[in-house]
Amino acid sequence: MLSAAIGLSGLAAFVAATPIPCNDYEVDIAIVDTSHTHVHPPGDPFRIEVTVGDSGLATAHTFAQWLDPEGVPLAPRIELGVGTHSLLSPGRDIGYYGLRFFSDDTRVSFPPQNAGFTSGEYGFAILPTRRLIDRTQDPRSFFGTVHTVLADPYIHGGSKTLTWNSASPTSWTARIAEIRDAGLTELPLVNNDDWDSDDDAQIPQSQLDEMSDRFRDYLLADPTVLDWELGLEENAGSTYDQPYYFHNLIAKAEALRAVADQINPDVRFVYNVRGFDYDEIEDLFAAGAMERFQVFAIHPYRWTEFPTPELWFENHVRWIRFIMRSYGAGDMSLWITEFGLPVRGNNDPDDFFGYPSDGNEVPGATREHAARYIVKGHAIAAFKRVEKLFVYNYQNRGDDIRYAEDHFGLRSYTEDRHTIPGHPLPAYVAYAQMIDHVADKRPPLRRRPHGNVWVFDYWGEGSADDCLLAWVFPEGEEVVPLGDLRPGLTSDEVVRVVDIYGRNVDLQGETVRLTGRPVYITVLD
Questions:
Q1: Residue-by-residue DSSP string for 381-417
Q2: Closest CA to 381 of 207, 144, 34, 53
Q3: DSSP string, 165-212
Q4: Beta bridge partners of 333
């Protein structure tokens, strides 16, 4: 959960009152895909059916074009008349394939985009075949997603899909079993009803009793859920300034701990904060509140520009660790229970994108920046020994092109988001490739061999191959000897080199060309 209160003012009243333009000549696009996940196996091009609606403007022509993750055309544009057309993908290899529609008449719109601009991009992927039945639960997994679609075989590790307000104690057993059977580990959230307190006064014992009774019902329904997140971004606004906030937080955590100790003492409590106010985080530890928790979690949203993680992320984790050590919590687990950024949903660069109700405008990331951001953030967090990182969000929450909160997903929006995933964004393909390459590896070492080269060296468990993740920052291009990435490495030991989307990258003798886009170098164990 995010906040629109990001410190930008501007013409709030004007923006909130400005209506979204009405388009008179709309073209509806409908896509039928044999894969409901829009992910296809490698080896053959995939085929989809596209139905183009009538804009009512006889002189306008509709076109489609296949694009790579950077928006570069993969094939010439295709003119499409009104009706149904069969389109073949321009490639058969692993990677991301985007399809965009546009017109030669600026009066035509492709909803929800405004007139004169291209449609949203319909993403597709070719990925190695994965079966849900082969996914096994791994509570130690570094990976996780928020609002996960359980049936997605490319998602791994942790899931954040439930709160104690989204499922009753009577349905809890079945819901947890469904998540466990899908090979995922659930992190439920306790918030809102029964948890929230008036922190201008001491919480009454009657509320603590009601909360404890309710928590007991959930633990008895399934005592094997080991981690529970208590509260959600409660450092938002002036909450910590309320005179009884910390007193009440401690009382609530202690009440629920007493219940957990009766049923399963291995249950751990997670507390999360947002933002970069280190004094505020120190206040939390100084009050003794974190002594009642076993995991400290952060939501590091770097408003409003969301610069690349090399510029800030490691330093942020370092400061958090410093505060934890200062209060004797240096061994406490550190998680990131939300991590992501908004991808710009509005194709009109001059139109608003952000939080219309408050007038807070944000630039929004490109699809390409979001994919790199997710991969680089995971590598840096794993290197800093963050135990878990949950991506916010598995899927876009809505399709309002002006509202940033709708655009944090790895996939596009769909109305039935619990069972039918939307179209992949490039970040989804990059996330699936990252899981494939490093999910079974130990946390990486990092090297900075020379210049702008960043290398994260993942060692495989047992007989698993090792994997190097390398890129150049500040961005540029360097031809780097393999032996600089890992001492003694030669091309004979390299199994394959691919970019973050799984596209092959050729070695140049005993060197590899690196850019700002990370590459995976799989190395024989």
A1: HHHTT--EEEES-SB-S---TTBGGG---SB---TTT
A2: 144
A3: TTS-HHHHHHHHHHHHHTT-EE--EE-STTT---TTSPPPHHHHHHHH
A4: 295
**Amino acid letter for position 331:** D
* pLDDT mean over 486-503: 97
Contact indicator for 361, 413 with CB cutoff of 8 Å: no
Q: Is 283 helix (H, G, I), strand (E, B) or coil?
A: helix
Neighbours of 495 (CB within 10 A): 12
* pLDDT (tens digit per residue) in 299-354: 999 999 999 999 999 999 999 999 999 999 999 999 999 999 999 999 999 999 99
Helix (H) or strand (E) holding 97: strand 95-103
In this prediction, residue 489 carries a pLDDT of 97
**In terms of DSSP bridges, do strands 47-52 and 83-88 run parallel, antiparallel, or are they unpaired?**
antiparallel
Contacts of 350 (CB under 8 A, 6+ apart): none
* Helix axes 205-221 and 169-181, enclosed angle (nearest 10): 40
Torsion of CA 424, 431, 402, 33, to 10 degrees: 0
Instruction: Name the CA radius of gyration of the chain, rounded.
Output: 24
C-alpha to C-alpha distance for 497 and 433, rounded to whole angstroms:
12
Q: Decide: pTM greater than 0.90.
A: yes
Counting runs of H as helices and runs of E as strands, what totals does the chain give? 9, 28
| Contacts with 369 (C-beta within 8 Å, 6 or more apart), sequence order | 306, 308, 341
**How many CB atoms are closer than 10 A to CB 63?**
16
Rounded CA-CA distance 514/475 in Å is 9
Name the residue with tokens 């409003």: 304
Among candidate residues 10, 85, 89, 77, the one with its CA nearest the CA of residue 44: 89
**Alpha-carbon distance values, 372 to 36, 291, 306, 309, 437 (Å):** 26, 36, 12, 9, 15
CB atoms closer than 10 angstroms to residue 452: 16
- Determine the angle formed by the axes of helices 205-221 and 245-263, rounding to 10 degrees: 40
Nearest to 382 by CA among 293, 450, 457: 457
The CA distance from 352 to 195, in Å, is 36
Task: Label residue 136 exposed, middle or buried (CB < 10 Å: 0-12, 13-18, 19+).
Answer: exposed
CB 101 within 8 A of CB 135: no
Closest CA relative to residue 254, chosen from 291, 298, 285, 223: 291
Compute the C-alpha angle 85/86/90, nearest 5°. 125
Strand 466-472, strand 519-523: pairing: antiparallel
